[in-house]
């Protein structure tokens, strides 16, 4: 059923779930910032597990951490990773990676090192900044958002098949 909902309706439901999280704004903001931090790292595929595990170990809001991880999704990840790579490459004063002409193990290992070092360094910079900004924003906006009344989404009119017979 949810697959038939529009993107705007899904975004609205996600916002409602976020606003309805239980806990103090500081607890939710810390959990969300942790999720954002993990979501900004190049750990695609295990980010949700990492965020939940770290939230459990650090006694943070697990649901907020799980929601924060979604900053990195199949639509945003290529842009995030490209920006992180370029930031790391610039700060480390490294040339852009050139893909090898040969596919030997040594060439591929060098490619991995030349690609991963700036990506990991850049992702650390982006993750710290994004986590700090998201913490401050959620801490300030959550009390305001909790006072809002979100109107029900209008349902489209559907004919019942039992009346058509």
Automatic annotation (TrEMBL):
It holds the Pfam family DUF2062. Keywords: Membrane, Transmembrane, Transmembrane helix. Residues 9-145 form the DUF2062 domain. The keyword Membrane applies. InterPro entries: DUF2062. The chain crosses the membrane at residues 32-56, 63-83, 115-142. This is DUF2062 domain-containing protein.
